[in-house]
Amino acid sequence: MASTAIPTSVPSIEERFNQEMLSREARAESFACLLWVSVIILTYSLFLIDGDMNSSLGRNISLLVIVTVPLFILIFVLIRWGQYRPSLAYLNTLLQLSVVSGAIYFDTQAYGTQYALSSMPPIAYGLVIIVTAFRLRPLMGIFAGVVAAAQFLTIYIFVSRDAPDMSAELLAEVPSLDWEVTIMKVVILLGLGAAGSFSAYSLRKELYNFIATAREEMRLHQSLGRYVSKEVADALRQDDTFALEPRSAQVTVMFGDIRNFTRFANSSTPEEVAALVNNFFDNADSAISKHHGVLNKFLGDGFMAIFGLFDHEEDPRELATRAGFEILESTSTVLSANKMGVGIALNHGDVIAGEIGSEGRCEFTVLGNTVNIAARLEGLNRKLHTNFLVTRDFYTMLPEDLVNVRSLERHNIRGISEPVELIELQSLKS
User: Fold this and answer.
1) Are 205 and 250 part of one and the same domain?
2) Same domain for 257 and 217?
3) Contact indicator for 249, 316 with CB cutoff of 8 Å
4) Does residue 297 share a domain with residue 382?
5) Is residue 8 in some structural domain?
6) CB neighbour list of residue 221: distance below 8 Å, 6 or more residues apart
7) CATH number, domain with residue 314
8) CB of 282 within 8 A of CB of 268?
């Protein structure tokens, strides 16, 4: 019994966005871990080189290094092993803030409480909080603000109780360190956390909308490309009015058709018919696209293609001629095995190109006598037992060394007042 394939669910834009964000976060947290390890080790080395630390301060700093560095390295290793979780980002932030708090505390021992609470290290709280906004996790900013405020307030209460340089008399000379100002600093840290949280939310929303819009445009472009050519899809995307206004153009029009298709269709299953037609169109589309043409219409078992509408660098007549022979060659094996063949005709001239249709539904195509004559030429292939027809005027515009031909004398073609000499293109010369 044949197994039935179980369709896999396609992730939504939000799911893919979250996956991409996790991947970006993992790389950012890895970098942050390495950066903090480098800063801690460098700072610790400078303290050791200085040699003026007392033994108690040295032990405390060594303890901070011994505790934090392995934790940073552990987070880095877990991320590298593909074990990243958002909780690691919170742990990383907690460690960073704890290092700042440790630096403030050790400054109180080395340089005094007033210096420690009013110098550079407390400013680092704000930097850590601001950086959390770029993680694009709204709760991370609030978490960082609360932790920073709590740690700073704890250090202030703990070190200011018995510090000789924090007496009421001395604080009167440094009002920025009194209790009221410290509470204001705590509020500022909480405010930074809230601001970082709001910024993260706004950035995440904007990025999500941008990615969603980009993916939707890509999806529409890919879907559109199934029904019109890539060139038409690109033009639709680039046009400000999302429309292609009708315009005059000089192009080469190709019509192609499977010969004896009706007999094959009547004696084959629908699956066999669809498989053969799809194979034919795949080969035709490949050859036409290779030579800068546009397969514009599928016409039952035939098609219409246009050359020179979007690419003006090469002669569309030569491009269409080469594409026609490639179609004949690429489809001959399958079609001849089923007693079928291909008829192709080319014509060059002025057309009206653009969106044609009703207000609710339209298609991009070309219209005009050039198109009509190309279609009628292709219909003569069956009558004349030929595969590739053009007019004498078309042939004279091709390079002399391009094709081998056979003249079929003059024939009447509806749409042309005088009989026209027809030329069968038999093969490429080189």
Assistant:
1) no
2) no
3) no
4) yes
5) no
6) 233, 234, 237
7) 3.30.70.1230
8) no
The answer to whether the CB of 148 falls within 8 A of the CB of 191 is: no
Please compute Rg for the chain using Cα positions. 38
Pairing relationship of beta strands 302-307 and 341-357 according to DSSP bridges? unpaired
Torsion on CA atoms 142, 143, 144, 150, rounded to nearest 10: 100
- H or E stretch covering 370: helix 369-384
Q: How far apart are CA 201 and CA 7, in angstroms?
A: 35
Q: Which two tokens stand for residue 307?
A: 């050359």
Pairing of strands 420-428, 293-299: unpaired
Asked if residue 113 belongs to a domain, the reply is yes
**CA-CA-CA-CA dihedral for 286, 287, 288, 289, to nearest 10:** 50
Domain interval for residue 410:
244-428
Task: Name the DSSP letter for residue 391.
Answer: E
Query: Residue 345 domain-assigned?
Result: yes
- State whether 295 and 401 are in the same domain: yes
**Encoded tokens for 88:** 């690691």
- The CA–CA distances, whole Å, from 145 to 127, 153, 197, 198 equal 11, 12, 9, 12
Q: Does residue 264 share a domain with residue 203?
A: no
Tens of pLDDT, residues 125-158 = 888 888 887 777 888 889 989 998 998 888 888 8
**For residue 16, what are the contacts with CB-CB under 8 A and spacing of at least 6?**
215
Give me 272's structure tokens: 């066999």
| Tokens describing residue 69 | 């560095």
Together in a domain, 191 and 293: no
Number of folded domains in the chain?
2
Identify the residue with better confidence: 84 or 425. Answer: 425
User: Please, which residues have CB within 8 angstroms of residue 124's CB and are 6 or more apart in sequence?
Assistant: 100, 103
Instruction: Supply the pTM of this predicted model.
Output: 0.52
The length of the chain is 430
b/e map 375-405, b = 16+ CB within 10 Å: bbbbbbbeeeebbbbbbeebbeebeeebbeb
332-351 tens-digit pLDDT: 888 888 888 899 999 999 99
Q: What is the distance between the alpha carbons of residues 318 and 145, in angstroms, rounded to a whole number?
A: 70
